[in-house]
Amino acid sequence: MMFEFKVSEMAEEFGVHRNTIRNWINAGTLPATEGPGRKYLMKFDDYQELCEKFGRKPHIRPNSHVDLETVKSLEEKNSELPVIELGRFAQKLYDDPSWGDSCLTCGTCASACPISGVDGLDPRKIVRMAFLSMEEDLIKSDWPWKCTMCGKCENVCPANIEIVQLIRKIRSRRKRELIPGPIQRGVTTCLERGNNLGIPKEDFIALLEGLGQELAEDGCPGFATPIDAHGARILTQVNSKEPFAEPDDMKWWWRIFHAAGESWTISSENWEGVNWGLFSGEDSSMKTVVGRIVDNMRRLNCEVLLLPESGHAYYATRYGLNRWYPDALKEFKVATLFDLLLGYIQGGRIRLDQTRHPQKTVYQDPCNYGRKSLRTFGQGYFEDARRIISSCCSNMVEMEPNREANYCCGAGGGAWAMPFSAERIYYGRMKARQINESEAELVITACHGCRDQLQKSLVQEYDLEVQVKYIWELVADSIILPKVA
């Protein structure tokens, strides 16, 4: 049983100066330790001995909640109880318990998170629960799936807590059949059939050939879609939503390749340009999808892998290559869409007409190409994107904040495919406000998720009077093609 006291109270009780009590504590005569609220704690037995030494009756104050008779009975009872060995908590989400002490619970992460407070979600709470072995509560919660894993919390955290990796680890612990939305179904279909939507090989080839013929008739004479072209310089991937629902969108890249005189190809199998294993937290699936890209590069003997355009797929592929296939990076080069487009522009391989986009234009920095890429790979694609856009537009402005501090659109982390549409739209309020304040008429982005969230959701929900384009769409629309004779 512990006895709580203030120095002033103890000094008054024993009729000595406050400094005397402090000296007793420092010398060990009074075996007390510091407690909360400028108070001290000592064992009640020690307090009784001190009273007996000075011939005083123990003084029990109302706020000490101690009754001598009760204390004596409890002490007698407790002496008969067996000692219980509690053991150690089974830390599963984090192996290093020091991370729990590193979190200051300062709230900086919560203040940066656009969805903090929704359904009780708070990054600090998630970190604490993880280190208090409340794993099952976190796994059952929808918090990890409402989080977009944008990394803004990590970006502002003064203690450098790896919150995004914790979120992904929590996601990985949920039973696969309980993952919300179509994420796991897409992963399973991709593993079984080579793409998230299960598009048959023969249908895919027929579609590519038909689109190639259309492009040849629409300003690119002689164009034919290069499928499984051995020895091509560049291998590209395709986001399965395009052949399934937006096939004409593939023509933008093809138009750029044609204008640049590029040697490129698409594989007829395992061509998927997204990697939802990143969202589901399933490393084995993510590794398999990246491995198939490596196999295609080797099979077709290509020189350069154009990393998938969608922000998450770029991140997952680059991460997967570095982690699981480092030797492959000695066999071929990798390039981002920024590397390729800027190379074409600066090398004079394509000519662009700035007058086609005179409106006020702003760039939406995708999280995976920006702060997450900077944090993981030491390189964020902020300025390259702006150089490309400035080559096509004469009136570029900025959102505030931008670059590394920019807000997520609200569709990251698989949120666009999740059933939490209300939370996704609420999350997007920050992006809508940024766009309105920029007074832009045209929004450019380099991510499929950003573009879909902006064009198909936020424009309608927040009455935004803007046009939305991919950065490669902007370039394709600005290209000056040779005149057809």
Based on DSSP secondary structure assignment, what is the total number of beta strands?
11
- Topology-level CATH name of the largest domain: Rossmann fold
The helix content, as a percent range, equals 40-55%
Low-confidence stretches: none
Cα-to-Cα separation, first versus last residue: 98 Å
Return the average pLDDT rounded to an integer: 87
CATH architecture assignment of the largest domain: 3-Layer(aba) Sandwich
Describe the structure concisely.
The protein has about 475 residues and is an alpha/beta fold. It contains 25 helices and eleven strands.
Q: How would you sum up this structure, described in words?
A:
There is one protein chain. This protein has helices at residues 7-14, 18-27, 44-53, 68-78, 98-102, 108-112, 123-131, 135-140, 143-146, 152-156, 163-173, 183-193, 201-217, 241-245, 250-260, 277-280, 283-300, 311-324, 337-346, 371-377, 383-392, 421-427, 429-438, 448-461, 471-478; strands spanning 2-5, 33-34, 40-43, 234-236, 264-266, 304-306, 333-335, 361-364, 396-397, 442-445, 467-470. The protein is an alpha/beta fold. It is elongated. The strands form three sheets. Strands 5-4-6-7 form a four-stranded parallel beta sheet. The longest helix is centred in the middle third of the chain and has 18 residues, at 283-300. The protein is built from 25 helices and eleven strands. The model has no long low-confidence stretch (mean pLDDT 87). It folds into four domains: 2-78, Arc Repressor Mutant, subunit A; 98-174, Fumarate Reductase Iron-sulfur Protein, Chain B, domain 2; 195-335, Rossmann fold (3-Layer(aba) Sandwich), CATH 3.40.50; 354-478, Rossmann fold, CATH 3.40.50.
